[in-house]
């Protein structure tokens, strides 16, 4: 029987081999595979791409059709998906690492944690090439994309670009001369990315904070299987919750026809719940409902948040676009501080002062709108209803990671650690919604952000304990499963999951878990590192 040190070595070997297994380039046929749709393989280039004939070799061996996008894209609002007749892969100039499984493209926020892992593995060129790919996306596809597929052109993902840039810049500075010319170029792209989050439609009302927002309309096509099955489940949930009077539903009958539907129709399989006034009942088994336009906007915006699916922003997170979220605004504060640092490194002292002022302003607004002093937790703010959410969520650790919390606020958040801490690390929430981004599930990136946030404020023992519990769970699960997974049940310390609402798979690979594992292991205290090697 192997001892723990051999088990750890097995995991490290798996991760090391995984970087090549998960790397994609356009001359590999597996790059074009897409389990999420049945479309024929197409590689799309920017509309103004000069000469496709030079790229014919990319698709010849794999039977991939090469096309230009129908229009030049400078911003997400320039995208008209109806003009793109078949979904396909978007051209990127450099190889990149994918998460794994159905996620066979380069993702926005996944890539930050993947890049950290690549840098720990001394794969600097691959990491830097991925950042260059994001510059290409900003320049030619209008923004950093959810991922490089055409159906993702209308939304981004949580903004980690400056964190990626500085991770690569600092790593390169350790191994060779500082590349200030690259940093200058990176700075310009980072400013463009930042500005998209701080102007309509990404503003959260008059709060001065930002929100998630997808520019597209209607159902998303990229759900594995039949997308309408997911939306049918949501419609049935709302029918049981409040009948056809539920605001996320639109009743469609002979008296309430809908002229333009953005999604499929679903039967009213049961009458409304009993009402005190029978005349108020508005549905019958013969009627149909469709999910509202606003539901689909929220559903799409939830997917930009990366937390798909949870019940954090209402049921099915259908009200995501109504909130100023803790995670997004903490990341934008971090971006402002990063841009301040980048400006200083480049000798742009006036710019640095402006970024410092922007960060201070956002910090004050976060404290005003998102901090609950009585509860000692950061919550999301619904700017439509002018109310603070009461949904306890692990993103309360983001302000610690970003460094915007006061010492007193950090202490209060850490005192609430038992709300989330489980034998295998941190659970996302305390609500068992049967969705993957809620209890009892924990995800690698949140473990890292929370652990690093606690370390930043001096809570090393708590950080070490959470990190150790997550690492030891991944190792123990690997012994029997032989894979590293996308997510874990941190209550039972297993990769076995039972998810009803949303994605039911627990994908193998897995890019960001690999990266976080290496980073947490590197940061672990010497005593716990020896323990994890020897037990």
In short:
The protein is mainly alpha-helical. It is built from 16 helices and 17 strands.
Question: How would you describe this protein?
Answer:
Strands 3-2-4 form a 3-stranded parallel beta sheet. The protein has a 3-stranded antiparallel beta sheet with strand order 6-8-7. The chain has a 3-stranded antiparallel beta sheet with strand order 9-12-13. The chain is globular and about 70 Å long. It is built from 16 helices and 17 strands. By secondary structure, it is mainly α. Helix 13 packs antiparallel against helix 14. The protein has helices at residues 4-21, 56-60, 110-120, 124-141, 161-175, 180-197, 227-242, 293-305, 326-345, 349-370, 398-402, 407-415, 444-456, 460-481, 511-523, 526-534, and strands at 23-24, 42-45, 65-68, 89-90, 96-97, 249-252, 265-267, 288-291, 323-324, 371-372, 377-378, 381-382, 387-388, 421-422, 425-426, 441-442, 488-489. The longest helix has 22 residues, at 349-370.
User: Largest sheet, order of strands side by side?
Assistant: 3-2-4
- Shape, principal axes of CA atoms: globular
Structural class: mainly alpha
- List low-confidence stretches: 274-281
| Biggest β-sheet description | 3 strands, parallel
Mean pLDDT: 93
Helix tally? Answer: 16
Instruction: Give the helix proportion (percent range).
Output: 40-55%
Strand runs, count: 17
State Rg. Answer: 23 Å
In what range is the share of β-strand residues?
5-15%
Distance between the termini: 13 Å
């Amino acid at each position: 029987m192997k001892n723990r040190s051999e088990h750890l070595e097995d995991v490290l070997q798996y991760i090391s081999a995984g970087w090549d297994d998960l790397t994609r380039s356009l001359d590999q046929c597996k790059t074009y595979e897409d389990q999420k749709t049945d479309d024929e393989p197409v590689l799309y280039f920017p509309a103004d791409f000069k000469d496709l004939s030079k790229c014919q070799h990319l698709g010849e061996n794999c039977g991939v059709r090469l096309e230009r996008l129908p229009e030049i894209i400078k911003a997400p609002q320039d995208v008209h998906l109806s003009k793109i007749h078949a979904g396909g892969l978007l051209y990127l100039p450099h190889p990149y690492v994918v998460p794994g499984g159905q996620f066979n493209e380069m993702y926005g926020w996944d890539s930050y944690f993947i890049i950290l892992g690549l840098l720990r593995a001394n794969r600097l060129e691959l990491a830097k090439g991925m950042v260059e790919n994001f510059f290409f996306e900003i320049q030619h596809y209008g923004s950093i994309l959810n991922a490089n597929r055409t159906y993702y052109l209308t939304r981004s993902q949580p903004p980690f670009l400056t964190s990626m840039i500085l991770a690569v810049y600092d790593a390169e500075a350790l191994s060779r001369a500082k590349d200030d010319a690259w940093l200058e170029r990176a700075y310009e792209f980072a400013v463009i990315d930042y500005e998209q989050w701080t102007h309509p439609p990404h503003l959260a009302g008059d709060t001065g904070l930002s929100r998630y927002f997808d520019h597209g309309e209607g159902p998303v096509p990229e759900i594995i299987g039949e997308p309408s099955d997911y939306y049918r489940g949501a419609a049935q949930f709302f029918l049981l919750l409040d009948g056809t009077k539920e605001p996320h539903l639109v009743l469609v009958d002979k008296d309430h026809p809908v002229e333009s539907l953005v999604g499929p129709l679903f039967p009213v399989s049961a009458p409304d719940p009993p009402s005190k006034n029978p005349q108020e009942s508005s549905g019958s088994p013969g009627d149909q409902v469709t999910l509202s336009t606003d539901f689909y906007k929220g559903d799409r915006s939830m997917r930009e948040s990366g937390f798909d699916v949870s019940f954090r922003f209402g049921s099915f997170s259908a009200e995501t676009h109504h909130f100023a979220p803790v995670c997004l605004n903490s990341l934008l504060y971090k971006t402002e501080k990063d841009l301040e640092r980048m400006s200083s490194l480049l000798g742009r002292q006036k710019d640095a002062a402006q970024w410092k002022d922007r960060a201070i302003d956002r910090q004050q607004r976060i404290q005003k709108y998102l901090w609950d002093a009585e509860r000692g937790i950061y919550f999301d703010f619904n700017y439509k209803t002018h109310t603070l959410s009461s949904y306890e969520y692990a993103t309360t650790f983001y302000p610690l990671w970003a460094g915007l919390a006061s010492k007193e606020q950090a202490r209060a958040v850490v005192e609430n650690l038992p709300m989330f801490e489980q034998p295998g690390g941190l659970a996302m929430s305390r609500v068992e919604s049967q969705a993957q981004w809620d209890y009892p599930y924990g995800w690698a990136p949140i473990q890292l952000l929370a652990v690093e946030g606690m370390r930043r404020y001096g809570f090393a023992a708590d950080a070490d304990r959470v990190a150790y519990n997550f690492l030891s769970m991944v190792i123990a699960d690997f012994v029997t499963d032989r894979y590293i997974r996308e997510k874990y049940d941190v209550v039972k310390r297993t990769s076995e999951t039972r998810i009803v609402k949303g994605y039911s798979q627990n994908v193998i690979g897995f890019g960001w878990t690999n990266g976080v594992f290496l980073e947490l292991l590197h940061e672990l205290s010497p005593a716990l590192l020896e323990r994890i090697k020897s037990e």
